[in-house]
From TrEMBL:
This is Rod shape-determining protein MreD. GO terms for biological process: regulation of cell shape. The chain crosses the membrane at residues 53-72, 93-110, 130-150. Its main location: membrane. Keywords: Cell inner membrane, Cell membrane, Cell shape, Membrane, Transmembrane, Transmembrane helix. It is found in: Cell inner membrane; Cell membrane. Belongs to the MreD family. NCBIfam families: shape_MreD. It comes from Pseudoxanthomonas mexicana. PANTHER family: ROD SHAPE-DETERMINING PROTEIN MRED (PTHR37484).
Amino acid sequence: MSRARTGWLMPLSFIVALLLGLLPLPDLLQPLRPYWLALVLAYWVIEAPDNAGLGLAVIVGLVADLMFGTLLGEQALRLLIMAFIVQRFRARLRFFPVSQQALAIGGLLLNDRIVTTVVHLALGEPTLPWPYWWAPVLGMLFWPPLFVLMDALRLGRRKRG
């Protein structure tokens, strides 16, 4: 796969994930917002480990901290931890069926909520209300369609012959 053909997809996917994170939602739905950046980062670490890794996780996390107005470094730390775990288990995750990948991603997103809670507790910041703990489940449900969409865009259509 030529880098020129897919070189636009990675930055565009992170921009879309950032915009989805900024999209206003009704108060009732706000706690259910999936962590789009984590989903996109996990995809790229699994599928393009030479181009996506810990450094990218920190950079994207710092940009997200600035855009979302969160504590500087919080999302960078969260994404760094996620990228590290995905890198560590990439060989296994890559060959799981998408449904099993979704379960693993759900576990990673739950871990992300735990990291967020620990950081907030350590700094004396308010922790997330309980409805926000449902977001990892929704992220897990969004993983299969996101994975299939990203793969279709990355690999392009195959010619039928």
